[in-house]
Amino acid sequence: MIANFFSKSKPIHLVIISLVLLVAFVISKLFLTNIPFGFLEFFKQAGIFGVVLVTVFVFDFVTSKNKLTKKNSFRVLFFTLFMTMIPQTFLDTNLIFANLFVMFALRRIVSLRTQKEVKKKLFDAALWISVATLFYFWSGLFFILIFAALFLFRIVNIKDWFIPILGMLTIAMIAVGFMIIFQMNLSEYLWSMPYQISLDFSTLNKPQIITSATIIIAYFIWSLFYYVRNIKSKSKSYKPSFILILIATIISILILIISPNKTGAEFIFLFVPLSIILTNYFEIINEKWFQEVLVWILVLTPVVGLIL
What we know:
Blueprint (H helix, E strand, L loop, with lengths): L1 H4 L5 H22 L6 H27 L8 H12 L7 H18 L7 H18 L7 H10 L10 H19 L4 H7 L14 H25 L7 H20 L9 H15 L5 H20 L1
Helix pairs in contact: 2-3, 2-4, 3-4, 3-5, 4-12, 4-13, 5-6, 6-8, 7-11, 10-12, 10-13, 11-12
């Protein structure tokens, strides 16, 4: 029984998750792209897969250390299954890197709960989101999360509110300096950034994406109701962290909606907060058979997607 197996947190779970991700990554590259196989390409793809694995390990560390879920492996299981359900997330290297840096930022943001090294954490979070923005412009919307954390954790020192701006300017100056040194066209780079907003979802009109997205949305809506209701029961010190996850979910959905070039890869930002929300719901389900059914639906969806 899959649900029962992942109900505890064990090192073997990360090994299995890594193998599943590897299989899904290889299949997506073979069936969804026409990349010519070569020695250099192999190492390039191995590096990209390494970034995916690092994201999973960082995600597991952040949720565990900040007690966003209980001690189980449902969170990494769901994250992995969501990625296999929409394999297009493996194909956009920029989004994979952007998601990793947003994950680094989230680690610093939720740790503001301790009220220790506040200035350093704010600067680091802004730094990571700024780097993410260099890879994918609209990931800059996660700056909202920093200021939401300042409000929710009641950080009232006015100087602290300017630190994220300093972090953003630091990366901007480094990026401009890099372009000047290597004689890159700054104006051309700025114009190439995807500032546009598009509400055209026709590119997502594929049976595989529609099927997976429908199930993901259904799970999100169903688990969100219980997640919001249970926030009230959280301790005063941890409650802001759970609200931040909810805000991160809203930001992820907004990015998905306004993204100018919709390929399905934009779902990647949604997987982290959604995995936390769904895990919190699973932890209150008493019927083991129901847990099992819900997990098997997620497991079988990628298989159905391959057939479609």
